[in-house]
Amino acid sequence: MHFCTPFFNFANMKKFELINYLQNFVTEDRLKTFNKVLSQRTRYLTVALEDIYQPHNASAVLRSMDCFGVQDAHIIENQNEYRVNPDVALGASKWINLHYYNKRSDNSLEAIEHLKKKGYRIVSTTPHSHEVELEEFDLEKGPFVLFFGTELTGLTANVLDNSDEFLKIPMYGFTESFNISVSAAVILHHLSWKLRKSDVCWELSEEEKIDLKFEWLKKSVKRSNLLIDKFLSQRTNL
Prior knowledge:
Elements lengths: L12 H10 L5 H13 L4 E6 L4 H13 L4 E5 L9 H4 L7 E5 L5 H11 L3 E5 L6 E2 L10 E5 L8 H5 L3 E4 L11 H18 L8 H15 L3 H13 L2
Parallel strand pairs: 1-2, 1-6, 2-3, 4-6, 4-7, 5-7
């Protein structure tokens, strides 16, 4: 995994040309918003959601991720299907990447294996004998993925047994836990703020920005596929 590495793949030159073409079909304000948001997006911090089935909570987490600049959500479906409530998400799922794990008997292990190969630390958000409080979490040890489980049962034993670290939110009242959407919002707010204040290279690479901008433009422009086909056809005939 590479962060803050100036890199451009010249094989993507065609995509760069397509971006310049599609930009003609959106407003200047929309382009400025894209560039502003891309400058604050990160994959250094990411989120995994295990068997979250309540549409309100599932959607609220996506909304918080978008608000705090976290680009990827890893959706684990073991027993429950992940459903998004558009009235709560307010379009957040349009701007972040959703990666689903639902093909195996234990999709949690598949997600963990995949994320570890990409260099992520597996961090379970749950009270544990070796947990670290939110304010003390070490960002500089490397990229990390925050695992959240259901409110009723929490994270499964497979996730807990394969976690590298454990994180909890300090609380001072009678209630022992927040619901998942509140927990995610609190943790993402603090860690994304702390990340941007640190010396860690958390930004997207230039190639990642180009890829995302292309996808966002396609979603923003009506009949973008037809326009792209027309552009490529004209380019071939030159």
